[in-house]
Amino acid sequence: MAFKTIMVQLDVDTIATPRISMAWDLAQRHDADLVGFCAAEPHFVMPTGTDDQAATKALWCQVEAIEARLNCLREDFLSTVNGSNRASWRGEIGNPTRQLILNARAADLILTGSPAVDLIVDHHRMLDPASLILAAGRPIIVASQTLAPIKAESILIAWNDTREARRAVVDAMPFLITARDVVIATVNHGSPDNVADVEMFLARHGVKARSEVLDARCSEPAELLLKIGREITADLIVMGGFGHSRLREMALGGVTRSVLRSGSLHRFISN
């Protein structure tokens, strides 16, 4: 597998150039096309009294403001990629998460920014990473808060022998085969997972990996994973997007959610 098309998601209310630059660098290193994407939708305006003209006008003012912002982002995107014919733009009026999930069909890999942890999330204008991970059908890179280039020279694999983890390893192969150091980390709850098959599978693809067993009796699994990531100076962690559907919401598992909230390194997540 190779990444032939990378889609970078941009937030309508934030400065986009750093994320575009990081995505363009990644696309060039993988000889891939880059698609810039942004979507936002207006808030519903409740009519007052029997005259709904004011509400309609307010709604259209929001739409016009979003369209103006999308045009600005498009200009920023095209300027950053120097008008390359290997880059294209998609700006849409609509829910940002739902629209990105629909457009994911056009890409091999989706790149987003770190989720806002301490802010109230406005899902009309901001991405819901959990829903994206569980519904996109494509691997997601959640970039670090620093938006440093994704070199992927040292990679940590969070392994627990589930469907999602197996999928993540396969999806991340373009990164794994070029890494200088790959560590398979598994958490020991009394019966450590056997990762010999994973090491052999990777070796047959030209990836030399080593394994580490983490003792989770004193610390949370997510904390242990991030700790070993720091020790091996990893800039990418590969993991499955564990989660489940609930009534009217999507929920991630505890380890996935904790790692997602840590913006210290790039996170490659598949479901």
The total strand number stands at 12
Instruction: Round the mean pLDDT to the nearest integer and report it.
Output: 88
Low-confidence stretches: 246-252
Structural class: alpha/beta
Euclidean distance between termini CA atoms? 17 Å
Tell me the series of helices and strands, N- to C-terminal. Answer: EHEHEHEHEEHHEHEHEEEHE
Number of helical regions: 9
Report the sheet-strand fraction.
Answer: 15-25%
Q: Write out the strand line-up for the largest beta sheet, numbering strands in chain order.
A: 3-2-1-4-5-12-9-6-7-8
Over all CA atoms, what is the radius of gyration?
20 Å
Give the % helix.
25-40%
Q: How is the main sheet built?
A: 10 strands, mixed
Shape: globular
General description of the model:
The chain is of the alpha/beta class. It has 9 helices and 12 strands. The protein has helices at residues 17-29, 53-80, 96-103, 129-135, 163-171, 173-176, 196-204, 221-231, 254-261, and strands at residues 5-9, 33-40, 87-93, 109-112, 140-142, 154-159, 181-188, 209-215, 236-240, 243-246, 249-252, 266-270. The strands form 2 sheets. Strands 3-2-1-4-5-12-9-6-7-8 form a 10-stranded mixed β-sheet, sandwiched between helices. It has a two-stranded antiparallel sheet with strand order 10-11. Helix 3 (96-103) runs parallel beside helix 4 and helix 8 (221-231) packs across helix 9. The longest helix has 28 residues, at 53-80. The radius of gyration is 20 Å and the shape is globular. The chain starts with a strand and ends with a strand. The model is unreliable at 246-252 (pLDDT under 50).
